[in-house]
């Protein structure tokens, strides 16, 4: 009989992470209890953290078991606990708070020999407390290089988690190399191929002034090379540069340019209406530890959309030779975009992306979980 899952991940919903893509497929054969984010740092006294804390404190602890839930939604728990506890006392208190909240849910669900899956190192204190039969650590990021994280605390918890985990899943070769090879499997990100390759109508707010469009979607964070983008957009006034996502860094240098448009965040299901209809997809990353360890979800989504991809250099691109125009500066990016302006849909690129569908990733994952 297939074992059930207790999953510690980010907050369910919004832009889906790799963990959510995988769990949506795994839950067809097993029960899943999903615990929303328990945090990777202590909250601070600024508006974003205050708003997030309020939402968590006022959220239901879990859905009403008598109220039907969407088929694609697991049983969700909204935890009330201490984020990223440091001292032994704080850790014990946080563990006890979570145990009290999870105990009735796990009793109601009657899980069969559950596997404890965590994508967050801070959940290591729950190992051995929930009656699990095995412990899986899914590592999708270099937490030591991730912005907005209590690095010392998270690094210590990750070391403990690696020691205790029965199976470690790493999203990139860079990450996999850090863990014991005997218990580690490489599980690169996949793609919801049908959603991104099936023709989608053009988004009504996508600029349509006759200029070719270079587009990007995702968070405009510390790993985005704003200076490179500003210089490239200035050199190509006959191009339009469109950004779909939430800016969390200073973008004033780009906002001053007439040919740059910021559209704000959009639901994940609407992204093909943008990426299929611009002339080039951008991956303008800085060269830092986080990017060297990353395997960005949007890379395969861009490929499935079939538009040329222009990217700065990072290791994960080596898995897709010839599929991406790799640039090393402004001149390279300008030249790559000019070539992309006359390029039609790239069928070979889409065919390559189809080999990495999330369904294939989930099938491989099923084999590893059953062998634990």
From TrEMBL:
Give the Polar residues compositional bias ranges. Answer: 61-72
Task: Report residue spans for region: Disordered.
Answer: 59-82
Which top-level group of life is the source organism from?
A: Bacteria
Extract the SUPFAM superfamilies matched here.
UDP-Glycosyltransferase/glycogen phosphorylase
GO MF terms here are:
transferase activity
One Pfam family this sequence matches:
Glyco_trans_1_4
Question: Is-annotated flag, keyword Transferase?
Answer: yes
Q: Which UniProt keywords apply?
A: Transferase
Q: What is this protein called?
A: Glycosyl transferase
- From which organism does this entry originate? Bacterioplanes sanyensis
